[in-house]
């Protein structure tokens, strides 16, 4: 039996030679050996053990809202935890599985009058991807509300790491250093607040995002981190007259220069080239080495 046949026989939902287009928010195409959708921890372990035995790389993907895939063939098994979607709300404490949609969660708890996740209503992540990235906005982020996270370790034991153990800093958690750790579940502590005030704040921010960001096109959010709280990456790029600049189907948004959009059938390679070229131009002009927030999947 070849590897694809063996994969199809595993006790887990698996698609082989999978097109990646619907698994990333840039909507770029690419192909991977397989994507697995385990329904529980036993199935997840089966996939990981199979990959290990057959020396195949694995990578967890959430909503793919921070990923740039290239056009190459990925000889790896992507693992998506969409079936890990349990949610328990106990007064102000939320226990949620890592495949749960972060925006959906933020709206749900906000409507219950729980405050602390307002920042997340515009971030199209899964809970696991948001913990990995310490995703945030408006001076808040996951580290402000996370109590602990259940992690599947490389030895397939599950441990509970505290907020401190996860070593959060700006858009960083320890999961980025040890990429074989898998976030299975997160526990958040919120505060009781006034539902109308919470929803009003969310609505205001939504209007601001809609007015300033090109959300009508596929993207992965901001490309570069702002170098300081006073220097904005978007402004540096705009001042170089790069709005509208394109490579293939990838374009620097006219609406917000820190967004690259898939304007017309872009490939991940177009997007990467445009990002790297912009970074080089900013460095050449200002001597500022912009940090890329998105991940080029190798
Ligand atoms: C329109 C738009 C707006 C955005 N706005 C913001 C914003 O305001 N603030 C912000 O911080 N980000 C923003 N982003 C970026 C993105 O949503 C975040 O980086 C998010 O945290 C990525 O989550 P994801 O589930 O999509 O992860 P993916 O992009 O699928 O994966 C990102 C990384 O996390 C790892 N990972 C995913 N799940 C797990 C898991 N369970 N265990 C271990 N590792 C895992 C993956 O292997 C990968 O390395 C935006 C993106 C878009 C498209």
Tell me the layout of helices and strands.
Blueprint: H1 3-8, E1 13-19, E2 31-37, H2 41-53, E3 57-61, E4 67-68, E5 73-80, E6 87-90, E7 93-97, H3 102-111, E8 114-115, H4 127-133, E9 136-137, E10 140-141, E11 146-152, E12 158-162, E13 182-189, E14 191-192, H5 195-212, H6 233-239, E15 246-247, E16 250-252, E17 260-262, H7 268-286, E18 295-296
The chain binds flavin-adenine dinucleotide (FAD).
Helix percentage range: 25-40%
Ligand inventory reads: flavin-adenine dinucleotide
CATH domain class name of the largest domain: Alpha Beta
β-strand percent reads 25-35%
The radius of gyration computed from the alpha-carbon positions, rounded to a whole number of angstroms, is 20 Å
Notes on the protein architecture:
With 298 residues, the protein is of the alpha+beta class. The chain folds into 3 domains: 3-80, Uridine Diphospho-n-acetylenolpyruvylglucosamine Reductase, domain 2 (2-Layer Sandwich), CATH 3.30.43.10; 87-198, Uridine Diphospho-n-acetylenolpyruvylglucosamine Reductase, domain 3; 213-296, UDP-N-acetylenolpyruvoylglucosamine reductase, C-terminal domain (Uridine Diphospho-n-acetylenolpyruvylglucosamine Reductase, domain 1, Alpha-Beta Complex). It has helices spanning 3-8, 41-53, 102-111, 127-133, 195-212, 233-239, 268-286; strands spanning 13-19, 31-37, 57-61, 67-68, 73-80, 87-90, 93-97, 114-115, 136-137, 140-141, 146-152, 158-162, 182-189, 191-192, 246-247, 250-252, 260-262, 295-296. Strands 6-7-13-11-12 form a 5-stranded antiparallel beta sheet, covered by helices on one side. A 4-stranded mixed beta sheet has the order 1-2-5-3. A 3-stranded antiparallel beta sheet has the order 15-16-17. A hairpin with a 5-residue loop joins strand 11 (146-152) and strand 12. The chain starts with a helix and ends with a strand.
């Amino acid at each position: 039996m070849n590897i694809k046949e063996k994969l199809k026989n595993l006790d887990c939902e698996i698609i082989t030679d999978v097109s990646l287009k619907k698994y990333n928010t840039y909507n770029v195409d690419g192909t991977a050996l397989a994507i697995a959708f385990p329904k529980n921890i036993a199935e997840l372990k089966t996939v990981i053990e199979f990959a290990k035995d057959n020396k195949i790389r694995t990578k967890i993907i959430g909503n793919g809202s921070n990923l740039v895939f290239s056009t190459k063939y990925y000889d790896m098994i992507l693992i998506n935890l969409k079936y890990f979607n349990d949610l328990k709300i106990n007064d102000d404490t939320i226990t949620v599985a890592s495949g749960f949609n972060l925006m959906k969660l933020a709206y749900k708890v906000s409507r219950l009058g729980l405050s602390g996740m307002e920042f997340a209503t515009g971030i199209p992540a899964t809970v696991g991807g948001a913990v990995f990235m310490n995703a945030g906005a408006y001076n808040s982020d996951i580290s402000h509300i996370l109590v602990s996270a259940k992690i599947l370790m490389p030895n397939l034991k599950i441990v509970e790491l505290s907020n401190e153990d996860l070593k959060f800093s700006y858009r960083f958690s320890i999961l980025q250093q040890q990429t074989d750790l898998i976030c299975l579940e997160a526990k958040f502590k919120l505060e009781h607040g006034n539902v109308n005030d919470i929803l009003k704040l969310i609505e205001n921010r939504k209007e601001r995002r809609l007015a300033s960001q090109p959300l009508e096109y596929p993207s992965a959010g901001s490309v570069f981190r702002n170098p300081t709280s006073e220097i904005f990456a978007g402004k540096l790029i705009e001042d170089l007259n790069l709005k509208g600049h394109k490579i293939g189907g990838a374009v620097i948004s006219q609406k917000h220069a820190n967004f690259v959009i898939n304007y017309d059938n872009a490939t991940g390679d177009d997007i990467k080239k445009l990002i790297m070229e912009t970074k080089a131009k900013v460095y050449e002009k200002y001597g500022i080495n912009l940090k890329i927030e998105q991940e080029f999947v190798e």
